[in-house]
């Protein structure tokens, strides 16, 4: 699955909850030294090929941009020399790393290139890509670890000259390559060594490269996200080499903010296309938690009218074949089970207080009986007490009572609340919470949808780094789940833009939820998950 941004593309948002580390190539990604390298290689090889032509009578063919991209870019210096010479059927002895730059050996030519490069750096200094530096700083400020990887033995000197050494927790360069006997790009060794030093597995790290060999290394290393930076009009080739995402500049990337949009506590639009979802889940296996009212069904006048559509049922059924799916509802568990009508899902009713699922999955709170009794008492009091208020509706459940005021005149809602408060004084085992045009009387017990989701992750052995919990919900009680998953998963609010929320992403309505579930299924089916 590949996504191209660049001109006309929409900005891709990196989610720091998905990636624990970001690994950057140096030349052409962080520093503007790729052009210096390219020009230096040309200087070296054009002079050498000219001199060789004069000496041997072979026709002179200059070193081209394509030669640079195909044989030299991203490779350790001597490997680059050898690869280019081989492409021209020239065989030279390898020589030794300390060969003088005058010697006609692979090492000698490599050392000549290095001397020319250093001369240019000394004269011209090193410029950085400001957008790359800004992105690295933002990632670091959000707790993402950073590493710099380069085949060049000069990497540290280049970073120092550019004044950006402190941007990286770890630096792996050409000296490490030799010291640790690692293979150069396109082998993934350098990048994997950086990920190891950061203590992060490759699938939880993103990597950024501008060279075809570097992108291929990222793909071979199974990095969570391989970003190709196209500075040379080779977007297609970068994608073919294995880039998940190709940008022309890192300024096209932004971060999903910790509290939704950068400018407030609202959520970013949830990408609904398969491609964007692939990038988001970044080779993790999702575990999906779905709220019912307002998420799987639109909010309607009365609870019994919230019937699941056949399309939505089919979408949930399809997803459940590919990954664990739980319905986490404020409704009574039996009620929501019957409404959803799918046997092999996990159901958590009464805002997560009552959980059951395939096999022996069941949670029974110690004080369950005490709360059931209290709920029954409250429901019995609420019915008669609210009978005088037109439109008020009591919905008793096993572990909560909902008092709906959707049909109550605005002026009378405070009367409903007064009744609820009065009943609560007599039933101190319960506490009041609010939802959409509803007061809920729930057990006075430290438990909510967030705790239920965390419990489920543990009980189902899904509390693992390769699992990405995804929670979709629309109401205040879903905020507990968004909060609980903040640093380990993805919360998706169903509702209008600008809603204050702990969710990272947002879908407009239940139709968008249906499209998202379908796209997620597509992605998982395509991946064979
Ligand atoms: O957690 P959920 O699955 O979203 O359940 C929350 C409450 O949903 C129901 O009430 C809400 O939906 C009704 C039907 O659309 C609507 O008439 C009502 O105004 C909403 O508050 C359900 O009846 C409650 O028991 C749930 O707690």
Short description:
39% of the residues lie in helices and 17% in strands. By secondary structure, the protein is of the alpha/beta class.
Q: Mind explaining what this structure looks like?
A:
It is an enzyme of class 3 (hydrolase). InterPro entries: B-phosphoglucomutase_hydrolase, HAD-like_sf, HAD-SF_hydro_IA, HAD-SF_hydro_IIB, HAD_sf, OTSB-like, PGP-like_dom2, Trehalose_PPase. Its EC number is 3.1.3.12. The protein has four domains: 3-31 and 126-255, HAD superfamily/HAD-like (Rossmann fold); 34-124, no CATH class; 268-365 and 447-526, HAD superfamily/HAD-like (Rossmann fold, 3-Layer(aba) Sandwich), CATH 3.40.50.1000; 368-443, Alpha-Beta Plaits (2-Layer Sandwich). The chain is of the alpha/beta class and 529 residues long. The protein has 18 helices and 22 strands. Strand 14 (354-356) and strand 15 form a beta hairpin. It has helices at residues 34-56, 65-72, 77-87, 106-124, 130-141, 155-162, 174-179, 189-198, 212-220, 235-241, 274-281, 310-320, 333-340, 368-386, 413-426, 449-459, 478-484, 510-526; strands at 3-4, 12-14, 21-25, 145-149, 170-172, 205-209, 225-229, 245-247, 253-255, 268-269, 285-290, 325-328, 346-349, 354-356, 362-363, 393-396, 401-404, 430-435, 438-443, 467-473, 490-494, 505-507. The strands form four sheets. It has a nine-stranded mixed β-sheet, with helices on both faces. Helix 16 (449-459) packs across helix 17 (478-484). Residues 1-10 and 258-264 have low confidence and may be disordered. 39% of the residues lie in helices and 17% in strands. The ligand O=P(O)(O)OC[C@H]1O[C@H](O[C@H]2O[C@H](CO)[C@@H](O)[C@H](O)[C@H]2O)[C@H](O)[C@@H](O)[C@@H]1O binds at residues 291-294, 299-303, 306, 329-331, 395, 402, 404, 406, 435-438, 440, 475, 477.
């Amino acid at each position: 699955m590949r996504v191209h941004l660049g001109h006309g593309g929409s900005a891709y948002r990196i989610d720091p909850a998905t990636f624990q580390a970001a690994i950057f190539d140096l030349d052409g990604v962080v520093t503007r030294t790729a052009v210096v390298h390219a020009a230096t290689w040309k200087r070296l090889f054009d002079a050498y090929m000219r001199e060789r032509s004069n000496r041997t009578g072979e026709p002179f063919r200059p070193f081209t941009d394509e030669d640079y991209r195909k044989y030299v870019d991203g490779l350790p210096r001597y490997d680059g020399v050898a690869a280019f010479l081989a492409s021209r059927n020239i065989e030279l002895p390898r020589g030794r790393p300390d060969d003088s730059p005058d010697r006609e050996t692979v090492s000698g030519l490599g050392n000549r290139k290095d001397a020319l490069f250093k001369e240019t750096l000394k004269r011209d200094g090193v410029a950085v890509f400001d957008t790359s530096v800004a992105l690295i700083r933002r990632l670091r400020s959000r707790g993402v670890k950073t590493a710099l990887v380069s085949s060049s033995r000069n990497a540290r000197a280049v970073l120092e000259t550019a004044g950006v050494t402190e941007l990286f927790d770890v630096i792996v360069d050409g000296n490490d390559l030799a010291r640790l006997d690692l293979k150069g790009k396109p082998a993934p060794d350098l990048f994997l060594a950086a990920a190891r030093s950061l203590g992060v597995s490759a699938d939880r790290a993103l990597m950024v490269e501008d060279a075809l060999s570097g992108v291929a290394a990222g793909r071979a290393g199974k990095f969570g996200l391989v970003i190709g930076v196209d500075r040379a009009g080779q977007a297609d080739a970068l994608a073919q080499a294995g880039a998940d995402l190709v940008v022309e500049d890192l300024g096209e990337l932004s971060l999903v903010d910790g509290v939704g949009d950068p400018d407030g506590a609202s959520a970013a639009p949830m990408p609904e296309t398969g491609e964007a979802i692939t990038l988001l889940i970044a080779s993790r296996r999702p575990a999906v938690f779905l709220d019912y009212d307002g998420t799987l069904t639109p909010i309607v006048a009365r609870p019994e009218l919230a019937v699941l559509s056949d399309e939505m049922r089919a979408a949930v059924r399809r997803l459940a074949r590919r990954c664990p799916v739980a319905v986490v509802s404020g409704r009574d568990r039996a009620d929501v089970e019957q409404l959803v009508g799918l046997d092999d899902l996990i159901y958590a009713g009464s805002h997560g207080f009552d959980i059951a699922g395939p096999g022996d999955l069941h949670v029974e709170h110690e004080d369950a009986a005490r709360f059931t009794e209290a709920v029954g008492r409250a429901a019995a009091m609420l019915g008669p007490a609210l009978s005088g208020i037109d439109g008020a509706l009591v919905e008793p459940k096993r572990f909560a009572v909902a008092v709906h005021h959707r049909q109550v005149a605005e002026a009378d809602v405070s009367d409903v609340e007064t009744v609820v408060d009065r009943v609560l004084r007599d039933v101190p085992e319960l506490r009041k919470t609010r939802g959409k045009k509803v007061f809920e009387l729930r057990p006075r017990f430290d438990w909510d949808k967030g705790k239920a989701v965390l419990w489920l992750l543990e009980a189902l052995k899904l509390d693992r780094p390769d699992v990405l919990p995804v929670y979709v919900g629309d109401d205040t009680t879903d905020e507990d789940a968004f909060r609980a998953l903040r640093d380990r998963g993805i919360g998706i609010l169903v509702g209008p833009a600008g809603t204050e929320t702990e969710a990272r992403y947002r879908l407009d309505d239940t139709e968008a939820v249906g499209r998202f579930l379908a796209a997620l299924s597509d992605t998982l089916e395509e991946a064979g998950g």
